[in-house]
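Hello,

Our lab assistant flagged a job as stuck in the queue for most of the afternoon. It eventually completed. Since we weren't sure the result was trustworthy after the delay, we are filing this so someone can double-check. Below is the sequence as submitted and the structure that was eventually returned. Let us know if re-running is recommended.
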Amino acid sequence: MSTESTQAKWDALLATHHQELTEEYISSNPHSQEAFNKAKRVLPGGNTRSVLYAVPFPLYTQSAHDAFITSIDGKEYVDFVSDFSACFFGHSHPTIVRAINGALEFGFSLGAITQKETDLAYKLKQRFHSVERVRYCNSGTEANIYAIATAKAFTRRSKVLVFQNGYHGGVLSFGTTSNTTNIPHEFIIGKFNNIEATEPLISPDLAVILVEPMQSAGGMQLASEEFLTFLRSAADKTGAVLIFDEVVTSRLHYNGLQGYFGIKPDMTTLGKYLGGGLSFGAFGGRDAIMSLFDPAKPQNDSPLQHSGTFNNNIFTMSAALAAADIVTPEEIQRINNLGDRLRQEGNQIIREAGFGSELVMIGFGSCIGLYSANDQKGVLRDCLYFSLLRVGIMIGRRGFLMLNIAHTDELIDRTLSALRNCISSIPTRDSKILS
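-- returned structure --
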């Protein structure tokens, strides 16, 4: 049988299996389907966060605790979505809950400065050594928007180097398709992890180099030390501002991946879990750059303006301070070790099931991506998603797992056992029916 014929038959077999799993999913989750149909009448696509759109419909959540999430159809799942890495502490961590409850008595929406934001700044500066001064905002997206604007003002240049498949927020997205909602900067798009392809794009009029030390939405692709060193050198030679987007990757090492690699950017953007699971973003860097916001500096005739009613809101400041005391190098290493075990043993299970050339778990530490070069439509990954879902394991629909500190060895054992059973039910390219 020819390779083309085998591929066509396998595609058809996968499609049939996928349809069966989809139909089972529909019949098993009637309340989610009903909620989705109702939502579509008032929300475009039935949601207000595009990444959560799903066919035939997304699961609707009723509650969550620790490492578990329960749907409105009453089914509990081990949660490996972890709110796309924002839920680093698991659901409703008691220390963070106490801090938020305390904020209710403290007073909120004050329209004033408190000492909490200063206390948090010292904690962030202790962890991320590139951050000499910092400002807060409400999301990683905002942090990257302001970081780019700050760097452009500092260099008085306009060109912004970003990378294919990079994601820095809903208006700073550089995937395989054009994002018409992107901010209209003068973007130059390089090839991630490719020095040879990027070097010709480095020029003296470059203002900003913005990079994720590991592309998260781009499939958990870890940058090489050589590539990041090249970007550091390029920024030094041209005077461009090197920004590390560590909104996600700051969870992978106590000092961020900049600390892991020993490469110091000029600016760093942060968000996600650092707000304790509440809306949070931060951008910081060298004092010479961040001082542009300081009206007291003699050279600042027109200091940069950065406002935001909720930049220092009491709920987030309280939760972030509580969260900062939970994050330790030891705890980060513990869940990184769990992620490494899940990745290593998971790949062995995948190979033994006959999918070694079709599917692989990649990533770093507690962030895992499911990668398949031959699964352009994502049917194989979707089959695995639905198969795991029906046995109580929830992974990211687009193919990722984000561990949080509520995950344990026992839950990893349970997940590996589920993976072994689920992937064995999916037809392989060598299935007898194809011969």
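-- support follow-up --
The delay was a queue issue, not a problem with the job. The result is valid. Residues 10 and 36 are 32 Å apart (CA to CA). The longest strand covers residues 206-211.
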